[in-house]
């Protein structure tokens, strides 16, 4: 029996690369999608926000001399490609899915319309939100917080490359230790970079908890949905 009825799952774009240097690795996306389908079959309403780091990051474009806002729009378009890939993989695996974009791109993806998204969720379809918030200078973490609040998700599940929130970036500091729970305020005061401060602040203000866990750990998503202890809970 799931402990959660409606979740906003933030999937790392970079995780879609698998062992590759960039892009989308077929086997990896199929494994992730199979885990999403499994929790969907348990009756959990699933909305997904996908990152774009495997294809493009606006800050990187900005750093090499591009106009930052233009680079960010490129980053948002990268998330549209990932969202299409996730939607396609879900449908191929037999799970009904709908992709909705925050940027008008009607020939490719239907636009994000909140009541429509809620209708799809109630019908049991997985909804994949593409193009982040639709605005430059934001991230898909903030989009996850925003859409999570809009659809009344009980929690934002950040499925990422590390298995929780650490005292420091575990990829840089081998002595970093993992928190089981941490408050939004403490995470922001300590400037823990696992999620950007805008996303943390929005979740805190909307009393929307976040659980950070590893996308690479098989079965982790199902364990979270069943209410088992996994990763780190970030709370008010
Ligand atoms: N204190 C910390 N605890 C955990 N991870 C941290 C911390 N500080 C920095 N990180 C880094 O944050 C990363 C996760 O955030 P990041 O925004 O890079 O990924 P993502 O949002 O999952 O991916 P993408 O942007 O591709 O969608 C981890 O891979 C980790 O190396
Ligand atoms: O609301 C948003 C979301 C994303 N972007 C741009 O897209 C890239 C990729 O997203 P990640 O969250 O880093 O995976 C991001 O770097 C931004 O350039 C955006 O502008 N607005």
From TrEMBL:
Q: What class of enzyme is it?
A: transferase
Is Nucleotide-binding among this UniProt entry's keywords?
yes
GO annotations of cellular component type:
cytosol
Ranges of residues in domain Aspartate/glutamate/uridylate kinase: 6-214
Xref: InterPro entries? AceGlu_kinase-like_sf, Asp/Glu/Uridylate_kinase, Uridylate_kinase, Uridylate_kinase_bac
Query: Domain of life, per the record?
Result: Bacteria
Q: Which UniProt keywords apply?
A: ATP-binding, Cytoplasm, Kinase, Nucleotide-binding, Pyrimidine biosynthesis, Transferase
| Residues the record lists as binding ATP | 10-13, 53, 57, 160, 166, 169
Gene3D superfamilies this protein is in?
Acetylglutamate kinase-like
Could you tell me the Gene Ontology terms of the biological process aspect for this record?
'de novo' CTP biosynthetic process; UDP biosynthetic process
GO terms (molecular function) for this protein are: ATP binding; UMP kinase activity
Which subcellular locations apply to this protein?
Cytoplasm
Q: Which reaction does it catalyse?
A: UMP + ATP = UDP + ADP
**What EC number is given for this enzyme?**
2.7.4.22
The answer to whether keyword Lipid biosynthesis applies is no
> So where does UMP get bound?
52, 72, 133-140
Q: What does this chain do? A: Catalyzes the reversible phosphorylation of UMP to UDP.
State the family named in the UniProt similarity comment for this chain.
Belongs to the UMP kinase family.
Note the subunit structure. Homohexamer.
User: What PANTHER family does the annotation carry?
Assistant: URIDYLATE KINASE, URIDYLATE KINASE PUMPKIN, CHLOROPLASTIC
Protein name per UniProt: Uridylate kinase
Q: Which organism is it from?
A: Tepidimonas thermarum
